[in-house]
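Much of what follows relies on a compact textual record of a protein's fold. A record is reproduced here so that you can trace the correspondence yourselves:
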Amino acid sequence: MRNIRKIFVRAAAVLVFLFVLESTVRFLYEPYNTYSILSTEEYEELKGTLDTLFVGSSHSYFAFDPQLFDERMGTNSFNLASGAQPLFMSYQLVREGIEINPIKNVVLGISFSSLLKNEDDNSVLGGYDRLITLRGKIRMLLEDTDDNRRLHELFYSTRVDNWFDFSAVAENVRHKLSDTYREEVLAMDDNEYGYRGYWYSENIFNGQRNTDENRGYNVWDESKVKDINLEYLIKIMELCRDEGINLRIVILPVTQAFLDYAGDYEAMHDYYAKLADEYGAELYDCINYDNRAEDFPNEYFRDTSHLNRTGSQAFGNLLVDWIKEREGI
């Protein structure tokens, strides 16, 4: 019995040591201007108060401005979108969010790649870093099937490339210990982070594409839907239905230059509409409707498929109008 106790004590000591070590490494080496740091701090501060969550990829963090929705709908919301966020990761974030907040609404931003693109390490890690509870992180580690990626999730030190860039370490420490750290990051010339997970851009798409066609995962083809993506879309819909949460699935707007190479986007609408009807979700499609070209000109985009700041405001107001009209809010 005494030996077992010693083993547990030593194991606990090792875990504490690793936790302290990894926390120190992250503080020293994670770039101070990583916007996920600011977003995570805000999310932790608001824990227990939020009633609405936005999830999705970069298209979503450029589209959903929580302040606009809160002012017009009386909500208290947060944008948990992250770059190329796979639906597997969206599910983890929604599940944790429901556990720690009185969530009434979940808004899932859909892009052409949502069901077609394979997840990659960076996209999963970006979402993992937005989890804020030990329970959420452990559950994620257990459900991730990629052993190598799980190592990167668990140990930030495995993500460090240049251990001897001491000037960068010094700069990180100086900024992170500053009383005006947040203000310094937001005042940077290239800053695109707003608040509550919302990013913005002042760039304007000039109508000229850099490539002659969309990448394969940006061309709708039902036969190329990835099983894991569909599985976790259904899990999100089932979770919200079972918890009595309003789930709004929003197909986000893109430019005509994007749509010209995007395949049968009417068929994409039908695919999502069938799923939404089956699982009790509301579908809002900002592509397949008559006034799309007038409502979303090139001036509202930063590139072929991401809204800029002006576009996000126009999109948000249009979506709120649709929600109020359809749902009688």
Observations:
- DSSP finds 15 helices and seven strands in the chain.
- Residues 84 and 241 are 25 Å apart (CA to CA).
- The radius of gyration is 21 Å.
